[in-house]
Amino acid sequence: MLNPLRSNLVPFLVLFAASASVVFGLAGCVFPMPDFDNPVDPKNRPDTFTTPGMEWVRLTEDAPMGTRTNYGFAAYDDQLWVVNGDVWSSPDGENWTQVLNDTGFGSGGGALPLGAYDGELYVIADGELRSTTDGTVWTGHENPPASTELARRLVEYDGFLWSIGEDTAARFDGTSWATFPIENTLADPVYGEHVPVVYDGALWSVGGEIFETGIVTSQDGENWETRPSNFDFTQRHWAAGEAFDQGIVILGGWVGGPTNDVLFSSDGTEWSIETAPFLPRERFLAARLDDRIYFYGGNSGGEGEEVPADVWYVELTGDP
Questions:
Q1: pTM of the predicted structure, to 2 decimals
Q2: What's the chain's Rg over C-alpha atoms?
Q3: Neighbouring-strand partners of residue 141
Q4: Which residues contact 140 (CB under 8 A, 6 or more apart)?
Q5: What pairs with residue 276 in β-bridges?
Q6: Which of 71, 238, 272, 286 sees the fewest Cβ atoms within 10 Å?
Q7: pLDDT tens across 177-226, in order?
Q8: What is the maximum span of the chain, computed from C-alpha positions, in angstroms?
Q9: What CA–CA distance (Å, rounded) separates 58 from 189?
């Protein structure tokens, strides 16, 4: 007769043997664990962070439009818009709707300067200027000057739509274009990839290896001056940026590799810098909707190494 104690041990020993087999069989495998000391480790990252004077919120890790670089991104009609061969919109950065499946333009991988002006959303794609009121029907306009090809985004300022290229500012009045040279460029400018913003009653261009300090500004778009700075922006390319009422925010970019820092200045001269909670990236864009600056997508470094299709916003909570 089988001993009751031995009978109870049989299932346990079988289970132990099976478990041991699995454990030893997996001994050669490596399973990455979260780096609990690293707030930007995607396996360990919460959805909300703070840095001095700022709160960061990741709205989604997997936006339905997927991962993209060299797209158009702008705020228009109380919505965020993404244009890149198709059109998506969102009222809050979290819930997205595909407005148009195929635009017929702008899917070639180049930059797509996008911006709101005079009640319409404008884009420069394939060397042409188009506008829409709803994202579905696009109307052509006078073709922009060649200098707009290297613009990162379009901005509305002083009653005009502006494109800031490497050494030229271009202005559209709804009918035709006018261009103005930007002086104070480096003797041998290499990279444009700068960030145009509107702040404190002026046009600004920040970053890119083209201007002497990496920053130029103008109140009329015709006369530009170099802005002194405590921070060297000449080596920072493909960053994103926007302006709060209180100051300019520059996000990430390429500085010998993708970065995840954030720079803030209330006067364009004195800049503070902090490490931000998003994954390092470049070739991405930002847009302001109400009192938040949203950003999305980009590239984490090497060829094809795109970052996840995450959407973030940052808002001020104090003095950065």
A1: 0.83
A2: 24
A3: none
A4: 128, 129, 130
A5: none
A6: 272
A7: 999 988 755 544 444 678 999 999 999 999 876 666 688 899 999 998 88
A8: 103
A9: 36
